[in-house]
Amino acid sequence: MRNVEVNAGGVIIGPGRRIVVQTMCNTHTYDVAATVDQCREMAAAGAEIIRITVPGLKEVEDIRMIKEKLRAEGITTPLVADIHFSSETAIAVAPFVEKV
């Protein structure tokens, strides 16, 4: 097994690196307002990476809106799409997150 580093929006994860605080939203991704609120709270609490579930293609537009709203507020915490077994969804959401 290779030891590799991964860059998630400027946050480097890997062997020999410091432990990174990451968390995951427990809101429904289609509830953009609730997810943005939760991301805002997590970023303020010190989360360095925020994971958001993307169960299918219909949530891709939600992720785009979530990121747009967060960045408009100056919240730059990297977003990671948590994909549910769909390469098509992973490819579609990739432009809107820092890591899939």
Key traits:
single chain, 100 residues, alpha/beta, two-stranded antiparallel sheet, 5 strands, 33% helix, globular
State the low-pLDDT regions, or none: none
Helix content: 25-40%
Overall pLDDT confidence: 95
**Which strand order spans the largest sheet, edge to edge or round the barrel?**
3-4-5
Taking all Cα atoms into account, the compactness measure Rg is 13 Å
How large is the share of residues in beta strands? Answer: 15-25%
Counted by DSSP, the helix tally is 3
Give the overall shape: globular
Word description of this protein:
The protein is an alpha/beta fold. It contains 3 helices and 5 strands; from the N terminus they run βββαβαβα. It has helices at residues 32-44, 60-72, 87-93, and strands spanning 6-8, 11-13, 22-24, 49-54, 79-83. It has a 3-stranded parallel β-sheet. It has a two-stranded antiparallel sheet with strand order 1-2. α1 (32-44) crosses α2 (60-72). The longest helix has 13 residues, at 32-44. It is globular. The chain starts with 5 loop residues before the first strand and ends in a 7-residue tail after the last helix. The model has no long low-confidence stretch (mean pLDDT 95).
